[in-house]
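yo

u said u wanted the structure for the complex thing, so here. seqs first:
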Amino acid sequence: MQKGFMYGLKQSIPIGIGYAPVALTFGILAIQNGLTVMESGLMSILVFAGASQFIAIQLIGQGATAWIIGLTTLIVNLRHIVMSFSMLRFFSKIGLGKLATIAHGITDESFVLSSNILQGVLTPEERSRVALGINSGAYFSWVLFSFVGAYIGNRLVINFSGFDFALLALFIVLTVSTVKKDNLPVYILAGLLAIILKLLLPGKWYLLISVIAAAAVGSLMIKKNTKDIVEEEKSYES
Amino acid sequence: MNHDIILIILAMAVVTYGARALPFLLFRNKNMGGFLKSFVELVPVALLAALVIPEFFVTAENSLSFFNPFLLAGISTFLFARKIPNLFLCVLFGMLAYWCFDKIV
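structre next:
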């Protein structure tokens, strides 16, 4: 069966649920830091990157310049380069226009979900539509609830702590279907590095460094293994 | 709308979109092989670990912890997801499990 935009949209529901309370909080804090409802919503529409938006409104509240905030945002969001780079393998021969649209929707959550789901989608064309669906669902929730949060300001208090766990639950389900015997060492290495680096470094640096280090070590090990196998085969032949 | 804030939002948008789109622009339709190929294939699983594992062991106060609602709810959700591999149900279960442990612990 062909899989398309709607399929992706449906898969994005857990992300949408997880984003809602975070975006609400963002909207509320944005108002408290002196942004208007339109400005808060506009930031979510144009930037669509949670952590950097929270940092930015805090810096705006402290009166930082566009330069400082731009630079901080770049540092926090550098890891998106690695994610886009990794996603390219799904989209061979897809036009630049479509890729440009997909690019705007790449977040930690949509990337991890897409990487998992797109493996089961056959053609690059279908994959691009499914990816657009996933990204759109996540984007819609983020933008909508940023506006809602900014609009209601402090008037609403949600007292269900379960929302704090929604995105983590999504990641755990993906862990069950993504982690296999052959990539388990990379998972463990990245997890341990991330713990250590999160304790030591500020902000989101731990994500970028642990991902690059663990994926690099993992691929070096694969290279070494295939070399060993090739050499073994050679010794059989001789 | 305030001009300074619009400028800030635009600066953020440019650098963030740049980080997202640059690889698409530079490496589109290039064949990746060997090291790079396995590297990009391992990025999702590595990121998954880096997003999940620290949440279980590093608290909001940035100290190590081996007993907290996140870890307990995480283990429960993991076991649940192995039995019932449905994304939506698992997220629902995880949220409820966390809510319970957060009340108790």
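Chain A has twelve helices and no strands. Chain A has a mean pLDDT of 90.
cya
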